[in-house]
Amino acid sequence: MGTVLSDEKQMHLSHVILQSLERTAEGRFVGSSTLALREIKLVLAEHMLLEKEIDKIVRARLQSYSRKIPEGSSEWDVMYQKTYEEELRKRKLG
Q1: Within the chain, where are the H helices?
Q2: 2 occurs within a structural domain
Q3: Is residue 14 part of a domain?
Q4: Is the N or the C terminus of the chain less surrounded, counting Cβ atoms within 10 Å?
């Protein structure tokens, strides 16, 4: 369930996040908005890489079960979500 965003979508999302931050009192920053956009995009890219890594781990774990669970089934969806959340907790992200 990893998210893949094109470069254009990442940039658009970066602009939306920056505009949101600029509208709040806590969102004030010093420096160039270009640098802020670059940093936001970097954080998004790191998050997507982490999601992809966790997805790979979860899928491998589900495939390792002796009783095969068909991907796309409701049981698989529940097991995937449960295992994904476990992995987030292990990494102290959820």
Answers
A1: 7-22, 33-63, 74-90
A2: no
A3: yes
A4: C
C-alpha closest to that of 83 among 61, 53, 52: 61
Domain assignment of residue 25, yes or no = yes
- The backbone torsions φ and ψ at residue 30, rounded to the nearest 5 degrees and listed phi first, read -110, 130
Residue 57 CB partners (closer than 8 Å, separation 6+): 87
Averaged over 3-24, what is the pLDDT? Answer: 88
Which tens digit of pLDDT belongs to each residue from 31-78? 888 999 999 999 999 999 999 999 999 999 999 999 999 999 999 999
- Number of folded domains in the chain? 1
Sorted by sequence, the CB contacts under 8 Å of residue 27 that are 6+ apart come out as 20, 21
How far does the chain reach from its first CA to its final CA, in angstroms? Answer: 16
pTM of the model: 0.76
